[in-house]
Each structure stands twice: as structure tokens, then as C-alpha cells.
Design brief:
By secondary structure, the chain is α+β, with helices and mostly antiparallel strands. It has 13 helices and 18 strands. It binds calcium ion (CA).
Length: 411
């Protein structure tokens, strides 16, 4: 007969990349996205188009001054009495180069110029007079050599590191460009914005589309950018920084009167592109469980908040297939004693790579640890739904009188 050791099971959430929610001066106004609540796929895409179109169009010439304000290096703030005063700016692609932060005074494009993140030759403003050509939500100040090196390549990972001195952390191939990590989230959300904002229904614009593999040649200005799956991944892996959120607020408040919805709510991207493909990423799930307004309330929607007070924070509700708004039994990991020994049973997401959620079974011989990860665990799994599976892990016999087990979830 199998002895009954003293065994406890618990769970642990570690929000390593846990999104910190903000409700501050850079948040959208109340109910700004009310008309988008509960939508997904092309319907959400259209609703966000309606929400963002009709902005005040800045001229391309005005961007010489505008970018000095939007792209400011806030380590050099302007004097309070003159918030438009020019100090330093940060150059896209150039992190790690000595000139990354430099004076933003326009000098005819000698030391910085205007970079179309969505390249001009990939469907933007043909001829160069549509509202997309000078849309601050995708233009950035860039070093001229880095800008030339990037050319009109589309975004993806991989390639030669440091193609030019002025972009030491970028990677280049004949077709693609990988910016430094610091730029990846913003760039992904800039491309997402352009694809949603421009549907070809306005004069001198084209329907801009994100695809997996845009054409190498830009002959004929094909209106396609990518790589879609990489941009979606960057959007999940690199949450909006304070600099990015502040920039979005400045473009909205001072220049264009419209916002980049994907900076306000990165969840919108997966709700448009992943949900209709049958995938339930953490972002899809968050937008299904919370309205856009609620996502701005940390007490409700933060990864470590527990609105249904069942002891299971939101991240774990997602990880174990629960409902954050309704306390319910059955999602917590449990132990099962069988003739062959003990097994740990828990539920997890089927597509863990897509959602950037990691699970590890850990054990300790005292409740306070130290905890060790169970290596080479023998496990079996069975589907509960298209996105959730049950995992059964064979636990080795305990050498002592007591052993404690837990499932560690990180994101
Ligand atoms: Ca809960």
C-alpha cells in the first residue's frame, strides 16, 4: 500500500513580465474605446479605424519641429514655462551608439531625419500627400545612416548584428530589419496602428495590410508590411514603456487629436489577429474578461489582482483556464494518489509559446523552501478544450517525512 506522506500543493504566480497597469495622465479619456467593447477580428479593426480616423494632419515640414517634442529624451526636460523648447531627442534604432541621445534642433537632416517606420515605398501616401505620409504615430527621428541602412526592409528577427556604427544593436538581412529591444514594442504598435488606421478609403491612401512575408521588391509600392507574427510577438513581449505612452499622449493632445489604440490597449492586437484564428492568448483572454475601461483599472485587471476574491490572481486564472470574474472550484492544482504513486494534476494553456506563459513543477522539503524544479518529469496530458489541457505529472517518492509541491507560473 502506498504510504500517505505529508504533502501539500500550492500555486505561485510570478509576474516576471507582468503588465503594470496605469491610470494616469497618459491613459485614454473615459469611455474612449467604449464602442469597441466586446468586439474582435475585422469588426474590432473597423471600430478602431472609426475611432482613430479624421485626425488633424500635420504637414511633413511641421514634423521637423514636432518630432523634437514627441521624441524627446526626458532626461533633458524642457523648462516649465516653455514645454515646446527643444532639448535632446532619442533616435530610433540607435540604442547603444554614442549619439543615441542628441540635440533635437532641426539641421536640415544632417544629424537626424524623419524615418517612416512603415516605409513610404510600402503603400504609404502615394503620392506623398495622404494623411499617412506625415502621421506622427509611425514617424520617428532617426540617424541618417541608420535610416539608410534600414531602407524599406520589413521587420523580423535575425541577421547581421550592427550593420552600421549608428545602429549597433540592430540586425539586418537583405529583406529584414530587427531593431534593438527598446524599439520593438513601439514599432510593432506603430505598424499595427497603420494597418488599422489606413484602409484605403481616403484620398491618396492605400489599404495597408500586415502579412507574414511582404514582397522583397517594392516596385509598384506594395502596401504590405510584416512579419505579422513577429510584430504580434513583440507587442506581447515588450509592453508600452512610459516613454511610449507619454509620446502617444503628446501626439493626441498637442498634434493630431487621435491615439494609437495599441499603445493604450496592446490586447486589441491579438483580439484582431489571433482570436479569429482560434488562438486564446493572454491578451485575447483579458479583452474577453474585461472591457477596455476595466483594463485601465489595476484593482480589477492587473495580473496579480483577484477581482473574484477566490485567492487566484488573474494571471493564474488564465494559466489554469479559470474565470477571473466568477469564483469557481476545480482549477487549482491537486494531488492524486494511485497504486503507482503520487501524481500532480493541473490545467494549462495548450499553446504556451504563443502566450509567453511558462509552467514549472517545483518541490521543497519545508514550506518555506528552498524550492527546486522537478527535472525530466514524466507527464501525460489530455485536452479539456481547444486551448486548455490537463497535465498529470508523476512525482518521485519523497525521501523525508514531508514534501511540498507547487506549480510555478511565469509570464
Ligand atoms: Ca481570482
Amino acid at each position: 500500500m502506498f504510504p500517505t506522506p505529508l504533502v501539500r500543493v500550492s500555486w505561485l504566480a510570478l509576474g516576471l513580465l507582468a503588465q503594470t497597469l496605469f491610470a494616469d495622465a497618459y491613459s485614454p479619456p473615459p469611455n474612449y474605446y467604449a464602442a469597441c467593447s466586446g468586439l474582435s477580428g475585422s469588426v474590432l479593426d473597423s471600430a478602431l479605424n472609426a475611432r482613430t480616423r479624421g485626425q488633424t494632419v500635420r504637414t511633413y515640414d511641421q514634423l521637423r519641429q514636432d518630432l523634437a517634442v514627441t521624441d524627446r529624451d526626458w532626461a533633458f526636460p524642457p523648462p516649465a514655462e516653455n514645454p515646446a523648447a527643444i532639448t535632446n531627442i532619442l533616435l530610433v534604432y540607435s540604442l547603444g551608439w554614442s549619439g543615441y541621445s542628441r540635440n533635437g534642433t532641426w539641421d536640415g537632416g544632417a544629424t537626424w531625419n524623419r524615418e517612416h517606420t512603415w516605409p513610404d515605398s510600402r503603400g504609404v501616401g502615394q503620392p506623398d500627400s495622404g494623411p499617412d505620409f506625415s502621421d506622427l504615430h509611425h514617424l520617428r527621428a532617426a540617424n541618417p545612416s541608420a535610416n539608410t541602412s534600414r531602407s524599406n526592409n520589413w521587420f523580423d528577427t535575425g541577421g547581421t548584428l550592427g550593420p552600421v556604427t549608428q545602429a549597433p544593436q540592430a540586425r539586418w538581412t537583405i529583406d529584414t530589419w530587427e531593431p534593438p529591444d527598446v524599439d520593438k514594442g513601439w514599432i510593432a504598435r506603430a505598424c499595427l496602428y497603420m494597418a488599422t488606421r489606413y484602409d484605403g478609403t481616403e484620398t491618396n491612401t492605400t489599404d495597408l495590410v500586415l502579412v507574414e512575408t511582404p514582397p522583397s521588391s517594392t516596385t509598384g509600392n506594395p502596401p504590405q508590411m510584416g512579419r505579422l507574427s513577429t510584430l504580434l510577438r513583440w507587442n506581447r513581449a515588450f509592453p508600452p514603456s512610459e516613454w511610449e505612452r507619454r509620446r502617444n499622449q503628446i501626439v493626441y493632445e498637442r498634434f493630431q487629436g487621435n491615439r494609437n489604440p495599441f499603445i493604450d490597449h496592446p490586447e486589441f492586437a491579438d483580439a484582431i489577429y489571433e482570436k479569429n484564428a482560434g488562438r486564446d492568448t493572454f491578451f485575447c483572454w483579458r479583452l474577453r474578461c474585461f472591457t477596455p475601461e476595466e483594463l485601465d483599472q489595476p484593482a480589477l485587471a492587473d495580473d496579480l489582482s483577484d477581482p473574484d476574491t477566490d485567492g487566484c490572481p488573474n494571471l493564474l486564472e488564465y494559466a489554469f483556464g479559470g474565470d477571473p470574474r466568477a469564483a469557481g472550484a476545480g482549477i487549482e492544482p491537486r494531488l492524486q494518489s494511485t497504486g503507482a504513486g503520487l501524481r500532480l494534476i493541473y490545467r494549462r494553456q495548450v499553446d504556451r509559446d504563443l502566450s509567453l506563459v511558462r509552467y514549472a513543477v517545483e518541490f521543497a522539503d519545508a514550506p518555506g523552501g528552498p524550492w527546486q524544479t522537478l527535472q525530466n518529469a514524466a507527464e501525460t496530458s489530455a485536452g479539456v478544450s481547444a486551448t486548455i489541457e490537463t497535465v498529470s505529472v508523476a512525482l518521485p517518492a519523497s525521501p523525508g517525512a514531508a514534501r511540498f509541491w507547487r506549480v510555478r507560473v511565469s509570464h
